[in-house]
Amino acid sequence: MDFYEISFRVRYGETDQMGVVYHGNYPQYLEMGRVEWLRSLGISYREMEKSGVMLPVISLCVNYKKSALYDDLITVKTQLKKIPLVKIEFDYEISNEAGEILATANTVLAFIDMKTNRPIKCPDYILEKIKTIS
């Protein structure tokens, strides 16, 4: 399965006094990649929640390689690890303009029924769209 890429510039408020991105901002970058990956398939996270399904993160692992700096143009590559069942897993690579890898990461999220707060299997409409890219 191919990577989906998004790029953006590091904002001043995401950095410390030395202009280095604070490590706690990386999960937000991963979320941006994940949400845009879904959107690229025609899946709106907002619409998914309106239909009663949420996707909380249940596992997050980030391996920091090199610092991202203020005003760097960074790229987040998001890749679905495997066809989802009750959980959906993504791998990520964050790099700078020079192509240097800044971080690698992995997240696991669970499909949850918002009414019962219980895990459910991946909705069929999402599986159908994922199968078109696998």
Automatic annotation (TrEMBL):
Keywords: Hydrolase. Gene3D superfamilies: Hotdog Thioesterase. The keyword Chaperone does not apply. It comes from the Bacteria. One of its GO terms (molecular function) is fatty acyl-CoA hydrolase activity. PROSITE patterns: 4HBCOA_THIOESTERASE (PS01328). The keyword Hydrolase applies. Belongs to the 4-hydroxybenzoyl-CoA thioesterase family. This is Acyl-CoA thioester hydrolase. It comes from Kriegella aquimaris. The lineage of its organism: Bacteria, Pseudomonadati, Bacteroidota, Flavobacteriia, Flavobacteriales.
